[in-house]
Design goal:
Length: 377
Amino acid sequence: MLSIVKGPWLQSPGCNTITIMWETSEPAESQVSYWETELVHRGLNGAPRLVEVTERSITNRGYSTIHTLTLTGLQTDTSYYYQVSSRLKNSVDTVKSDKFIVKTAVAKDTPFSFAVCSETGGAGDHAMSCKIFSTIETYRPEFLLMVGDAVRNGTQYEDWEKWFFSPGQNLFTNTPFYLCPGNHEEYSPWFYKFTANPDPGNYYTFDYGNARFVALDSPAMVSYKNGSPQQTEEFRTGSPQLAFLEEKLASTDAKWKFVFFHYPPYVSADYQVNEMRLFCPIIEKYGVDIVFNSHTIIYERSHPLRAGKVDKNAGTIYVVAGGAGAMQEWLHPKRAWHTAQSLARPHFIQVVIAGGTLELRAIDENGYPFDYIQLEK
Ligand SMILES: [Fe+2]
């Protein structure tokens, strides 16, 4: 019997497009039906109720188990209902998902919010991951950055369901995620199969509202093959990834700039990766506002830093969003010079942007903020 075994989940939200993915138990056709609606109501039984029914659909008659369809021609900053379905070849055996809500990206000057999390696999606490993702959903971010280690071992197919898609099942139906590689993703083909990141996929850029985001593949930059961290060829001047980073930061007039990658250059706890500091000058040169890292399963926010010193006027803030766990024993007895705030507490990050104002909150699994900063420009 044909069934949907993962998803649906959302990728790459644009002002007029969005990508919808799901996985079926057997190779099957892919179809997404979607409906415009002006208002979204919840009926008494909790089910979504369509207000305006103008059905459109898109179909891929290829047969696959992992389905990727991109809706186009959508209205900016607009909610739609969608429903995915798949049909076996030469069969009437069709499976349909429930109806879910998807929203396209906002216009350049419209306020928005996003969340940051990580380590559902690194921490390996399924119940906590469920709680964190459920709490993220109550804050209703436009999208989620996952800063790596979403799984325990990315080469194991079952891990993706166990540590990532199962805890995120509800959240991912209505909140697109952007995943960057952590060491636990293990350079696995499943990373590429389960995401629809912009090219080349392991590092990439996208714009949302008045902000530019660049994701990097830090495990490709630092190798632990000989036991101790060593910089790889990715660090040489002119390497494709560093050239990409510099070009994407130099070529934008976005008001806010964010870079996210797994290995933390600055953290006063175990698993700081000093080697990553060598390319911080590129980040700082182009005025990146906040860098999001993970790998160390704690929360930490640096002072604004530039050239290895605190610079309150022109520095970049480094946030370790160690996410869905808390390793108290990983914190060092005393904080480092670059540490502004640091706690071992399960959490996610919420960022709210309204024009030249940015608010960042670290929020625990129960929904309570425990750290806050506001930036103005
Ligand atoms: Fe890690």
